[in-house]
TrEMBL record:
Stated name of the protein: hydroxymethylpyrimidine kinase
Signal peptide segment: none
Phylogenetic placement of the source organism: Bacteria, Pseudomonadati, Pseudomonadota, Gammaproteobacteria, Vibrionales
Transmembrane regions listed in the UniProt entry: none
GO terms under cellular component: cytosol
An example Gene Ontology molecular-function term: ATP binding
Length: 279
């Protein structure tokens, strides 16, 4: 953490705005674990309650707009929020509400994970809401973190099929009007590395990490975006925050098989650094 160490220093506060995953592997639950594990203080605004586990999503209940608004007002009116991570927003009305509150309270950093489809393939954002996301919320983001299917939905372009294909997306990513974009290449299973493309202003860079053979990848997108928000809140510049978050998610994935959670795609190991084997 690079905050000044004077007597007035406090733990940086990160707000996650997302859906609840009762299985604990993704959504609000993954965000809070990640923010805590990376050294920040997590608070939350829940936009939807999902019924899900490692095998899939069986139901989604959006929270009433007035209660999302009251949660946001409660947090922003009292806490010094240094960064906001935004995940599942469910529909266009929720997107517009969150965008209006971001404009009202102007947090220093906004990390937007444009959650559209769960790991198990369940649709988490109404298709008609994609344009609302592009028009009202993405331009407010410090960085957005789409995966390849989300990139295709946002740009109406085919998904890249390899690492060189990632580099061909740079112009399309800039047209999305976020200050920075991290295009996640985790779906490129045939590649030796897990490569993400960071586009920031006129710069573009591939950030690589080892690819770990595990099926326990539930909540990886939530975890990566929350880690970026946590490091931005701590004062790191964008490139360094992304680099540190990439290191964190890579280690959380590499330690995922130490857990035995559920019968499907299990979660990553958010607390790998302090993991203890209990007899």
């Amino acid at each position: 953490m690079i905050l000044s160490q004077d007597s007035q220093s406090h733990i940086p506060i990160v707000l996650t705005i997302a859906g609840s995953d009762c299985g604990g592997g993704a959504g609000i639950q993954a965000d809070i674990k990640t923010i805590s594990a990376t050294g920040s203080y997590a608070c939350s605004v829940i936009t939807a309650i999902t019924s899900q586990n490692t095998q899939g999503v069986s139901a989604v209940l959006p929270i009433p707009l007035e209660h999302i608004a009251s949660q946001l007002d409660a947090v922003f009116s009292d806490l010094d929020v240094r960064a906001v991570k935004i995940g599942m927003l469910a529909d266009a009305d929720i997107i517009r509400l969150v965008a209006s509150k971001i404009r009202q309270y102007r947090p220093p950093f906004v990390v937007l994970d444009p959650v559209m489809v769960s790991t198990s393939g369940h649709l988490l954002l109404a298709p008609e809401a994609i344009n609302t996301l592009k028009e009202s919320l993405i331009p407010l983001a410090s960085i957005i973190t789409p995966n390849l299917p989300e990139y295709a939905a946002l740009t109406q372009q085919p998904q890249p099929e390899n690492e060189s294909g990632l580099m061909q997306t740079i112009q399309e990513l800039r047209l999305l009007r976020a200050k920075a974009v991290l295009l996640k290449g985790g779906h490129l299973d045939q590649e030796q590395y897990s490569s993400d493309l960071l586009v920031e202003g006129d710069k573009a860079e591939l950030i690589r990490s080892a690819r770990h053979p595990t099926r326990n990848t539930h909540g990886t997108g939530c975890t990566l975006s929350s880690a970026i928000a946590s490091y931005l809140a701590q004062g790191y510049r964008m490139h360094k925050a992304v680099f540190l978050a990439k290191q964190y998610i890579s280690q959380a994935i590499s330690h995922a098989d130490e857990l035995s959670v559920g019968q499907g795609r299990g979660p990553v190991n958010h607390f790998f650094a302090g993991h203890m084997h209990v007899r």
